Amino acid sequence: MPRLRLLTFNIAHGRGLNPIQGLTSAQKLKNNLRKIAKLIEKLQPDMVALQEIDECSRWAGNFDHLEYLRLYAGFPHAVFGINTRRKGLLNLCYGNALLSRHPILATETVVFGQATVGEKGFLFAEFDVGGRIVPVVNIHLHFGSREHRIRQIGRLLAWLREKLRERGPHWDLPPIICGDFNNPGHSPDATAALLSHLSDYADYVLHPRKGKTFPSPLPQRLLDFVLLPPPSGRVHSEVLRVMLSDHRPVLVDFDLA
């Protein structure tokens, strides 16, 4: 029975604990990304879901952070899901991404709006895990507005309904959903709404059950989650006590029954 290890991590554009984006040199960004890559290499996850990762942004050193991490952490497969893209002197290009040790069969990016800075969305990918098709959604929700988050979850659910009709028969389990939800899991907010609606398809379980992820030095809130569908067995999840971003990463191990 295959066992999968998934890491989800908002890496804050590689700036570490610097509170102001754009005041970190390219060399310091690379040093911090190498520390993140070293952590990933130590943990040996099968898949890594990243949020706030830059493809080529002026405020983040104008280099491809995903390719940098892929090479240093030793992953054969990677895909970007760009949510914010702005050209010109103050160019920005960032969003979500996935690193994988398993082949990526298909991907799709859904962007929630058209903002030129701070836009959110989700990245979908299908993975070939030993001949099984495993779908994963990596999502980043709005930081400041519950109304925006609820609307974004509505977009995700509508998209999932269509995708389940189109691709569901080919999947070996319903989609794993992970990322930075920017709200606690059981408050009357987007994450709880998502769990409630997903119960129409399967008995999803929210991980981790305890711990806090934000802000990383003295975390007060648990904002980062992995939603696992059945038949995921022998689940172990934890918040990692590292301070390489303003979020702490979440690691989940489970059997792919």
Task: Describe this entry's structure for a reader.
By secondary structure, the chain is of the alpha+beta class. It has helices spanning 26-43, 65-73, 146-167, 190-198; strands at 3-10, 47-54, 77-86, 92-100, 104-111, 121-129, 132-140, 176-180, 205-207, 224-228, 232-239, 250-256. The chain has one domain (3-256): Deoxyribonuclease I, Chain A (4-Layer Sandwich), CATH 3.60.10.10. It contains four helices and twelve strands. Helix 1 (26-43) packs across helix 2 and helix 3 packs parallel to helix 4. The longest helix has 22 residues, at 146-167. The protein is globular. The protein starts with a strand and ends with a strand. The mean pLDDT is 96.
Helix content: 10-25%
Any idea what the radius of gyration is?
17 Å
Q: What is the top-level CATH class? A: Alpha Beta
Beta strand %: 25-35%
| CATH homology-level superfamily | Endonuclease/exonuclease/phosphatase
User: Strand order of the main beta sheet, please?
Assistant: 3-4-2-1-12-11
The overall average pLDDT, rounded, is: 96
Largest sheet report: 6 strands, mixed
Distance between the termini: 6 Å
Instruction: Indicate the low-confidence ranges by residue numbers.
Output: none
Which CATH architecture? 4-Layer Sandwich
What's the CATH topology name?
Deoxyribonuclease I, Chain A
- Compute the number of strand runs: 12
Number of domains: 1
Oligomer: single chain
Give the number of helices: 4
Give the overall silhouette.
Answer: globular
- Helix and strand content put the structural class at alpha+beta
